[in-house]
Amino acid sequence: MQKKYPVIDIIATGNNIKSIMQSRNITVKDIQQFLGLETPQSVYHWLNGRNMPTIDNLYALSELFQMPIDAIIIGNRKYTPDQNKCNIEIYENYNCRSDLYDRMRFYLLLYYFYISKNRTSKVIS
C-alpha cells in the first residue's frame, strides 16, 4: 500500500549521505567528531538505512557538507524547492557559486553605469 503523503526513503537517503561523504572525502569518524557522538554506530545506521539522523544532526550535516538539507534527504515528494536543483553536482561548489553570482552582479552594475554615463554625456545639437 502506497502512502498518500510524501515520505522519506531511508535507504536512498543513507546511500546519498554515503555518496556525499565519498565526494567530499569525509569519513564516519569525521562526522562522529563533528557531531560530538560517543560512538560511530548511529552514523553507520544512517548509512545502512536502519534509521535517520535527527533534525539537529541533519542541520549540522548540511553545514558540514555545505548543502541544504533537501539535497541530503531523498523522498517521494513531487515538489522540489528549486525544481531539480537538489542534487550533489549542483551543490559541489556551493560557496564558489555564490562568488560567481556576486561577480555577475558587479559586472552588471558596471555595465549599467557605463551605459547610463554614455547616454548622459552625449550632447544633442
Structure description:
- The chain is an all-alpha fold and 125 residues long.
- The protein folds into two domains: 1-92, lambda repressor-like DNA-binding domains (434 Repressor (Amino-terminal Domain), Orthogonal Bundle); 93-125.
- Helix content is 61%, strand content 0%.
- The protein contains seven helices and no strands.
- It has helices spanning 10-23, 28-35, 41-47, 55-65, 69-72, 88-91, 94-121.
- The chain is flat.
- The model is unreliable at 83-88 (pLDDT under 50).
How do the helices and strands follow one another from N- to C-terminus? Answer: HHHHHHH
Strand content: under 5%
Quantity of strands, as a count: 0
Cα separation of the termini: 80 Å
Unreliable segments (pLDDT under 50, ≥5 consecutive)? 83-88
**What count of structural domains?**
2
**What is the name of the CATH topology of the largest domain?**
434 Repressor (Amino-terminal Domain)
Instruction: Please state the second-level CATH architecture of the largest domain.
Output: Orthogonal Bundle
Average predicted confidence as pLDDT: 77
Give the overall shape, derived from the CA principal axes: flat
Main sheet overview? none
Fraction of helical residues: 55-70%
Classified by CATH, the class of the largest domain is Mainly Alpha
How would you name the CATH homologous superfamily of the largest domain?
Answer: lambda repressor-like DNA-binding domains
Rounded to the nearest angstrom, the radius of gyration is 22 Å
Number of DSSP helices? 7
Category from helices, strands and their pairing: mainly alpha
